[in-house]
Design a protein that fits this description.
This protein is an all-beta fold and about 120 residues long. Helices cover about 0% and strands about 60% of the residues.
Length: about 120
């Protein structure tokens, strides 16, 4: 069972920065994409950003474009999210996700979540 271990959350003032890290417990073969989702109280979980393991293509939620940057390290099976110019509305639990082929079927793995709180 693959485990995703997240770190880097915390409390920051508006306009500040944080970097989230996520490392897989073992080599994830046939990774399709890794990324970050977030869930604020009373809201559905939403995609923040993801990066394709082969090729490095990225997608971002419109609300974070220009402020957040996702990157990866194929050797360490890690993905990072650099968050700049944070806003109170970025407050949420952030979850790392890895989508991996198991045979021909994509399977999602999730981290335990890390809290990001942005004060105004």
């Amino acid at each position: 069972q693959v485990q995703l271990v997240e770190s880097g959350g915390g409390l920051v003032q508006a306009g500040g920065s944080l970097t989230l890290s996520c490392t897989a417990s073992e080599n994830i073969f046939r990774t399709i994409v890794m990324g970050w989702y977030r869930q604020a109280p009373g809201k559905e979980r939403e995609l923040v950003a993801h990066i394709f393991w082969n090729g490095g293509g990225t997608d971002y939620a419109n609300s974070v474009k220009g402020r957040f940057t996702i990157s990866k390290d194929n050797v360490d099976n890690a993905v990072y999210l650099r968050m700049n110019s944070l806003k109170p509305e970025d407050t949420a639990v952030y979850y790392c996700n890895a989508r991996v082929y198991s045979g021909s079927v994509p399977v999602d793995y999730w981290g335990q979540g890390t809290q990001v709180t942005v004060s105004s």
